[in-house]
């Protein structure tokens, strides 16, 4: 079996456990394509997986990485939708931190003409997650108000733009610095809250005349639970994407969930069935890619790294300084 270069985890732990090494080159099934990866995006889950707390879904590569851009190098016997040499980007269950990745033909997406491989690698995970949260899970409607936590994160920067496209009334974001909230406003947020200096629940109620937000995108969890419940409007919906601020609540009054008829839903992407992911991919190709191509939407890239500097790239993500995506180039 031929081999390829890949980022490997020596043993679960800190970023310094990452190293460039050799792994078997993936074999493709009849409905898959082999992509020669040019760039891949970093995601928070990569850090959790690196630490040994996030096993990849069954059947996926145990190499880190869920999004890539590159060229199609080889196609399986049943592949009709793409050809060798096509420039593509996409989402995988694992394995993007390597020279080659095997992907189902229905999951690859053409790279918008004006986009570099770096910009393309910044699209799949964050735009899929934000689109899924806004349209599939919370069923956001024009004229509603949305509160987006982690506004300057990869997911947050996509969610702000998608909420604007969906004709939100108010787009309120939280972030950990004034620079970050200012950047979010440049993308279309109408209000920015620096959660380190301001009480987000009080500010949301102030900005909405006491009504609250119709939709919340949360990734903080326990630390924000009570304030999130208090910041939701009647018939409000909240999607929970992660627990950056913990997952255990010691005490909480749930009465408001009944009183305000709240809907709270968790959301995952990586563990969803191929059929579900294809449905989401098709919605993105129809509704998001043309807007990225026209410049109405833009992927936000904070920094790019060579994969020789993968340790520094992970450490930078863990420092919480980034605005938008961190992209790594294979060279
Ligand atoms: N469930 C899913 O399907 C799914 C899919 C993709 C991503 N996610 C999750 O969504 C989140 C965003 O992902 P990403 O890749 O876009 O992340 P990212 O770009 O790395 O940004 C995450 C940001 O969250 C903020 N943050 C970190 N710890 C925090 C805390 N304790 N309280 C409040 N804010 C905190 C930091 O910004 P500040 O300076 O503003 O604090 C940080 O820069 C991650 O937690 C990720 O695991 C979930």
Could you provide a short overview of the structure?
Helix content is 29%, strand content 27%.
Structure description:
The chain is an alpha/beta fold. The protein folds into two domains: 3-122 and 300-329, Medium-chain alcohol dehydrogenases, catalytic domain (Quinone Oxidoreductase, Chain A, domain 1, Alpha-Beta Complex), CATH 3.90.180; 127-266, NAD(P)-binding Rossmann-like Domain (Rossmann fold, 3-Layer(aba) Sandwich). Helix content is 29%, strand content 27%. The chain has eleven helices and 15 strands. Strands 3, 4, 5, 6, 7, 14 and 15 form a seven-stranded mixed sheet that branches. Helix 6 packs parallel to helix 7 (225-231). The radius of gyration is 20 Å and the shape is globular. NADP nicotinamide-adenine-dinucleotide phosphate binds next to helix 1, helix 3 and helix 4. NADP nicotinamide-adenine-dinucleotide phosphate (NAP) binds next to helix 1, helix 3 and helix 4.
**Mean pLDDT across residues:** 97
- SSE class: alpha/beta
Write down the overall geometry: globular
SS summary, helix count = 11
- What's the CATH topology name of the largest domain? Quinone Oxidoreductase, Chain A, domain 1
* Beta fraction: 25-35%
Biggest sheet layout: 7 strands, mixed
* Gyration radius from CA atoms, angstroms: 20 Å
| Poorly predicted ranges | none
> What is the straight-line distance between the termini?
23 Å
Bound molecules: NADP nicotinamide-adenine-dinucleotide phosphate
CATH class of the largest domain: Alpha Beta
The helix-strand sequence is EEEHEEEEHHEHEHEHEHEHEHHEHE
Compute the number of strand runs: 15
Measured as a percent range, the helix fraction is: 25-40%
According to CATH, the homologous superfamily of the largest domain is Medium-chain alcohol dehydrogenases, catalytic domain
């Amino acid at each position: 079996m031929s081999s390829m270069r890949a980022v490997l985890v020596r043993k679960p732990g800190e970023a310094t456990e990452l190293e460039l090494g050799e792994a078997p080159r993936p074999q493709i099934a009849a409905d898959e394509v082999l992509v020669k990866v040019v760039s891949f995006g970093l995601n928070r889950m990569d850090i959790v997986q690196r630490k040994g707390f996030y096993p990849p879904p069954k059947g996926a590569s145990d190499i880190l990485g869920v999004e890539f851009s590159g060229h199609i190098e080889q196609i399986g016997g049943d592949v009709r939708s793409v050809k060798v040499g096509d420039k593509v980007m996409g989402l995988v269950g694992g394995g993007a931190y390597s020279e080659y990745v095997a992907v189902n033909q229905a999951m690859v997406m053409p790279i918008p003409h004006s986009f570099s491989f770096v910009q393309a690698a910044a699209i799949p995970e964050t735009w899929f997650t934000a689109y899924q949260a806004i349209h599939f899970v919370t069923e956001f409607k024009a004229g509603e108000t949305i509160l987006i936590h982690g506004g300057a994160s990869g997911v947050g920067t996509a969610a702000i733009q998608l909420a604007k496209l969906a004709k939100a009334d108010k787009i309120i974001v939280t972030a950990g610095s004034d620079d970050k909230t200012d950047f979010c406003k440049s993308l279309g947020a109408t209000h920015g809250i620096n959660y380190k200096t301001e009480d987000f629940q009080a500010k949301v109620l102030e900005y909405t005349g006491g009504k609250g937000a119709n939709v919340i995108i949360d990734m903080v969890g326990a630390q924000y639970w009570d304030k999130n419940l208090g910041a939701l409007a009647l018939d409000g919906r909240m999607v929970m994407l992660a627990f950056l601020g913990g997952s255990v609540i010691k005490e909480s009054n749930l009465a408001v969930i009944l009183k305000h008829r709240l809907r709270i839903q968790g959301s995952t992407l990586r563990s969803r069935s191929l059929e579900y992911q294809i449905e989401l991919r098709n919605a993105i190709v129809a509704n998001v890619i043309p807007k990225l191509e026209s410049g109405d939407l833009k992927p936000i890239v904070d920094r790019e790294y060579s994969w020789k500097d993968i340790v520094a790239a992970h450490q930078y993500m863990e420092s919480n300084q980034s605005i938008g995506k961190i992209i790594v180039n294979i060279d």
